[in-house]
Design brief:
CATH class of the domain at 65-276 and 384-402: Alpha Beta
Distance between the termini: 56 Å
Number of strands: 10
Strand content: 5-15%
Structural class: alpha/beta
């Protein structure tokens, strides 16, 4: 539909003037802003900020899975806590072959099966996908991998008990405010369930992924214990290390903790950092009007009135959302709580929150990778994932270090 009020020849000043009139009409009459925009032949993407340079994003070019893709190497991978497949997509691009994936959430399993129908996904409705059920998972593994598994186990136990961002959602007076970590009745013990499976099936190499808070919780005692169990099982374990996605050709500041090891006594070389950062505008400036999972939220006029006054990098205190700076990596894409979807950031040039697809772009998912379920649950899947491009670079380092 043609843009009736904001033709390309109109200046940003005129756009903003007309926009203010539409917003006031919505506030004064109670008519939904979405209806007013639709009747005028507009969408939320026609809205503008009061202050915007529309300057070109700075930094390097973003890395993609295609740029990193290697030939298939035949090295098998079993993943645990697979989520929507961020780690697995990265390892796939690095040449590994997917042998089995364990995931407890049925919706996440639907996303995996939709995008990769040939993968063996063990989860609802056919299996529990519950890594804490040791005998059940062991029974499945005995059928799909040989006794001496010359491949990789990869997994990130649910990180919410260790996450600072997750606990910032709770009131300081509440019981959930402090990072309860391993005191969590189930999620806090899943790390050891995973370690137990590594010790039993002895893959050549393993990857453990989590938030940085896992390293510091309880003075590092719990993570140290997990590492000691692996060392006693015959593994050479790399000192836990943190990778920030923004240092690896990804337009997002996102820190993840990794622990890797192998049973051959080989040293590990970490991925090399990129020479420069990637501005968020590099991946958000592309037209996504026809892309899947790109339904944008229909904000109320009152919200747009607040958002449009923000400058780059500023926060709307009421909504607790930040306007991204196109010249800098995005702030961390977050998943949200178990009962609510992620609270996405504001687009750098359009006063609205990001869509699932835009968040997935910051996470480096390919545009043809689809997320199923309600929008809130799509945000959860995207926000929980390891950026596939980061996983690919880690997978390449594991390949070079442990499979020479």
């Amino acid at each position: 539909m043609p843009n009736l009020l904001f033709p390309e020849s109109k200046s940003c000043t005129l756009k903003a003037t007309l926009q203010v009139k539409l917003l006031k009409r919505s506030v004064n009459t109670g008519e939904p802003l979405s209806s007013i925009l639709r009747n005028a032949g507009l969408t939320y993407d026609d809205l503008v900020y009061e202050r915007s340079t529309n300057g070109r994003p700075t930094g390097g070019e973003p890395l993609s899975l295609e740029k990193l893709r290697l030939r298939e190497n035949g090295i098998p991978v079993v993943s645990f806590f697979t989520g929507c497949g961020g780690m697995d997509l990265g390892l796939e691009a690095a040449g590994y072959s997917q042998t089995a994936a364990f995931e407890i959430n049925e919706l996440f399993c639907e996303t995996l099966r939709l995008n990769r129908p040939k993968w063996r996904v063990f989860g609802p409705p056919t299996h529990s996908g519950d890594v804490s059920k040791f005998e059940e998972v062991s029974s499945i593994l005995r059928k799909v991998i040989p006794g001496s598994f010359d491949g990789v186990f990869a997994g990130g136990p649910p990180c919410q008990p260790f996450s600072i961002a997750a606990n910032q959602r709770f009131a300081k007076s509440g019981d959930n405010f402090k990072r309860i970590g391993f005191a969590h009745k189930k999620n806090g013990n899943l790390l050891f369930d995973y370690v137990r499976l590594i010790a039993k099936f002895k893959p050549r190499a393993f990857i453990i992924e989590n938030v940085p808070g896992l390293r510091d919780l309880d003075g590092g005692e719990q993570l140290t214990e997990a590492v000691q169990i692996l060392e006693k099982s015959g593994y050479t374990v790399e000192q836990p290390f943190i990778l920030d996605a923004s240092h690896y050709g990804i337009a997002q500041q996102r820190q993840r903790l990794f622990v890797v090891g192998n049973r051959l006594g080989l040293p590990f070389t970490r991925p090399a950092q990129a020479n420069t950062w990637v501005g968020a505008g590099k991946v958000l400036s592309i037209n996504l009007s026809d892309a899947p999972n790109h339904e944008t939220r229909e904000h109320k006029a009152e919200s747009i009135q607040r958002y449009m006054k923000l400058d780059y990098g500023e926060r709307d205190q009421l909504g607790r959302v930040d306007r991204l700076d196109p010249a800098l990596p995005s702030k961390t894409v977050i998943a949200g709580g178990t009962k609510g979807g992620g609270r996405s950031h504001l687009h750098p040039e359009i006063p609205r929150t990001l869509s699932v697809r835009e968040s997935a772009r910051l996470q480096t998912f390919p545009d043809d990778y689809l997320f199923v379920g309600p929008t809130a649950r799509q945000f959860t899947q995207v926000g929980n994932a390891v950026p596939p491009v980061l996983a690919a670079q880690l997978g390449i380092s594991v390949l070079k270090s442990y499979f020479r």
